[in-house]
Design a protein that fits this description.
Helix content: 40-55%
CATH architecture of the largest domain: Up-down Bundle
Number of helices: 17
Structural class: alpha+beta
Shape: globular
Number of strands: 15
Radius of gyration: 29 Å
Number of domains: 3
CATH superfamily of the largest domain: Formiminotetrahydrofolate cyclodeaminase monomer, up-and-down helical bundle
Length: 559
């Protein structure tokens, strides 16, 4: 899984397109990041920018953007409706994939320290990056805003986490932190009543509604209104009427999708709307969504049907879209709405995006790649695909209803292995291309010769590691294949047998690639360990294939 984080800095400029352009161009100049959205607001005099990328690239882009904003924006002349305290008012980092919240918080603190030290700017950290519970909340930190911070920053309890303890008159101060991905999500009702939509919103939002008795607001001992909490944690919600569509909606911000995932919010709103005599007709996502939010929703709705969850990513997204009606108001194209899909590099999936016939044609052409390594990976993919198919068929076999969960687990294991092997189809060809590129490096002097040799050896090792990964994953697939031959739907036992033959071919074929590339590696110790590991897996694959074929033959003879 790629390591991806999102950054959503808010800059205190929403009216001058040239200033905004210079800031966003600074972000885009950093390799490894992708600018996804720029949303300026004239009334708020504020622009929200969204970009994603590898953690290191995002940190660098954020730093450069904060620097550029400080050069271009003069906070002493700034006015706007939105609360603010600096040229870069707030800069949150959000983990998207392959990165934990704890790691993201560490990246946020690294960025904050660098901004404070190198840019000499007062910096506060918030949310998950802030260990002090009294300083986690952004609104608490920002209270007093730019004008009030000249005095506030002098108070001992409000000493910045990093940087000087003097407010910068031109640039102000900034807040950097780590938080969960926020999903803006609207649920459509079969009513035009804002009041009734608000009633459901108050039912579900964490803040709930103000408690009343005999029409009067109930207050606590300190005279503050008492609230009755709603049913969903980490959810903000309000009801409104959308004239364009002629319906009322419940508009929600899901501020922590680990606490309240998308599908949980949808189902809860359905229940509360039904309690009030309404029904949900569909919903819409505003902006981008992490892939996991949709795949987990797909699995959730499949489990409710007692269906196997070990299906493709595409199938999971499709069931999520259909179940929540995400395409009721406008088409929902995952390629344009899922963050991970927006970040995909087509060059990294050149082969697996081709049709079967085109893949075969390219393999048969005079080009040396794709070659045996990519074919071994693809054959392994087909092998585990067959076993996953058997698991899915077994999960809804008539008379086996009580075993759907058992086979669903096997199918999920198979689907995970299938995705890994499929990516190795292209990875093997890329490793071959890397070797060719290394051999093409200049060698006119000793320094260039040394760099060329090092590049060739690094690429050669990678060209051994990729087929070794094919071997490892194909061996793992043997466990699923054997289980399906033993306990799966008897009518599909031959499919499990073919899967075993494919997995064996993948292991043995990939090992040939390991061995031929090992001939070009000068690291004898490394080569010895790789070849020993490969030889062991080769033996295990042949033994497993023989064992599975025996099981298959016995099952077929009993039909």
């Amino acid at each position: 899984m790629k390591r991806i984080i999102e950054c959503v800095p808010n800059f205190s400029e929403g009216r001058n397109p040239e200033v905004i352009r210079q800031i966003t161009e600074t972000i885009e100049s950093v390799e490894g990041v992708r600018l996804l959205n720029v949303d300026p607001g004239k009334a708020t005099h504020r622009t929200v920018v969204t970009f994603v990328g590898t953690p290191e690239a995002v940190i660098e882009a954020a730093f450069q953007a904060i620097r550029k904003a400080g050069e271009l924006i003069d906070m002493s002349k700034h006015t706007g409706e939105h609360p603010r305290m600096g040229a870069t008012d707030v800069c949150p980092l959000i983990p998207i994939s392959g990165v934990s919240m704890e790691e993201t918080a560490q990246y946020a603190r690294q960025l904050a320290e660098r901004v404070g030290t190198e840019l000499n700017l007062p910096v506060y950290v918030y949310e998950e990056a802030q260990p002090d519970p009294n300083r986690k909340n952004l609104s608490v930190i920002r209270a007093g805003e730019y004008e009030g911070f000249f005095k506030k920053i002098q108070q001992p309890e409000w000493t910045p986490d990093f940087g000087p303890t003097v407010m910068d008159a031109k640039r102000g101060a900034t807040v950097i932190g780590a938080r969960d991905f926020l999903i803006a999500y609207n649920v459509n009702l079969n009513t035009t009543s804002t009041r009734r939509a608000n009633a459901v919103a108050f039912d579900v939002r964490e803040a709930g509604r103000v408690k009343r008795e005999n029409g009067q607001v109930v207050k606590d001992a300190n005279g503050n209104p008492v609230s009755t909490p709603g049913s969903l944690k980490s959810v903000k919600a309000i009801g409104w009427y959308i004239e364009e569509y002629g319906i009322a909606q419940i508009s929600m911000n899901l501020t922590n999708i680990r606490v309240t995932p998308l599908h949980v919010a949808f189902d809860e709103v359905c229940e509360r709307a039904r309690d009030r005599g309404m029904r949900i007709t569909g919903s819409e996502l505003v902006g981008l969504v992490p892939l996991q939010a949709l795949t987990e929703a797909g699995k959730y709705f499949l489990r409710k049907q007692q269906r196997s969850t070990g299906v493709s990513e595409k199938a999971l997204i499709d069931i999520a879209v259909r179940s929540m009606g995400l395409d009721e108001l406008s088409p929902f194209n995952p390629e344009e709405r899922v963050i991970e899909y927006l970040l995909q590099d087509p060059a990294e999936q050149k082969l697996i995006r081709q049709s079967l016939s085109r893949f075969a044609e390219e393999t048969a052409s005079e080009s040396p790649a794709p070659g045996g390594g990519s074919i071994a990976a693809y054959v392994g993919t087909l092998g585990i695909s067959l076993a996953t198919m058997v698991a899915n068929l077994s999960a809804h076999k008539k008379g086996w209803d009580d075993r759907w969960s058992e086979f669903s687990e096997w199918a999920e294991k198979g689907e995970a292995l299938r995705r890994q092997l499929l990516l190795l189809v292209d990875a093997d060809t890329r490793s071959f291309d890397a070797i060719m590129s290394a051999f093409g490096l200049p060698k006119s002097n000793d320094s260039e010769k040394k760099l060329r040799t090092e590049a060739i050896q690094a690429a050669t090792k990678q060209a051994m590691e990729v087929p070794l990964d094919v071997m490892r994953i194909s061996m793992k697939s043997m466990e699923v294949i054997e289980a399906m031959a033993t306990i799966g739907n008897p009518n599909s036992v031959s499919d499990a047998g073919v899967g075993a033959l494919c997995a064996r071919t993948a292991v043995l074929g990939a090992f040939m690639n390991v061995r031929i590339n090992a001939a070009g590696c000068t690291d004898a110790v490394y080569v010895k360990s790789i070849l020993e590991a490969g030889a062991l897996m080769e033996t295990q694959a042949m033994e497993a294939e023989t064992r599975i074929r025996s099981i298959v033959d016995k099952q077929i003879s009993q039909l």
